[in-house]
Amino acid sequence: MFGALVFFLATVAYGLQAYIVGRTITTTLIGIPVADPRFETYRALISTICSIVFLISAYMEIKHISMISWATMPLFFGISIGVVWLATSQYPGGIATVLGKEVPGGLSFIDAMLMAVSMWAGFTACISDVSRFLESSKDTVISLPLAYFVGAIPPLMGALLAAIIRVPYEEIFVRFGILFAALGLIAWIGAAWITDDNNAYTAGLALATTIHSVVRTCCFNLWNIRCYLRGNRCRRNKLDNLHDHGISTLLSAICRCRSCSFLNS
Questions:
Q1: Which of 75, 113, 129, 175 has a CA 20 to 30 Å removed from the CA of 151?
Q2: What is the pTM of this model?
Q3: How large is the angle between the packed helices 65-90 and 178-230, nearest 10 degrees?
Q4: pLDDT digits over 28-73, tens only?
Q5: Please, are residues 240 and 261 in contact by the beta-carbon 8 Å criterion?
Q6: Weakest mean pLDDT among 35-44, 53-62, 109-118, 169-178
Q7: What is the DSSP string of 120-189?
Q8: Cα gap 22→19, rounded to integer Å
């Protein structure tokens, strides 16, 4: 069950990244606003293409994904910090006023939940980059809190920008000129790419583990039923060879479990 839950969460996170990229490209690069009837069609098409590209690159384990990581993450943080600096410096009273600003009505439950999810997503985005270079258990102990600290920076910057600029997140970079918009789009796509590379690996590993566990459990249950019906004691290694019973051969091939061969007897 835990493997199935991890698969579900990783798949949702994978789709969310593709959705963000599709939405950003549709509104900023193509120039179709959210209110336009064509928006969902273009967004869905671009998100689907991105999902396929990300999945293929994750499956093929492209050699240059680490280069994309090294180039994208500094660019993403650099552009984000630059936008926050410009926004706060142009705001009357500066950052001190922004930090003391109160949103009318307070923070709703959904806003708090999304911020928590953003911090988790930021952590998972950064841990995949940090973990590529782990060589010992000591490195792991250092990298986990480091990744969480670095991953908490994007939602904090987002909170500052949300207090200053009342626009959808994909339009933030556009407000500061074409250069910021272009670099921001590249950084956003790259960050989503390396994040989904990690999400795809996590989802695939969880699914494989779940299937293996389910099939193996089914095999053992069928063996117990057979033993009960025949009144025999269970001997898992009774047969070593697989013959012509298609379903038992398939199950045995899937779970890589020699004990499944009892189905042929």
A1: 175
A2: 0.59
A3: 130
A4: 778 777 778 888 888 889 888 888 888 887 777 666 677 777 777 7
A5: yes
A6: 109-118
A7: HHHHHHHHHHHGGG--SHHHHHHHHHHHHHHHTHHHHHHHHHHHH--S-GGGTGGGG-HHHHHHHHHHHH
A8: 5
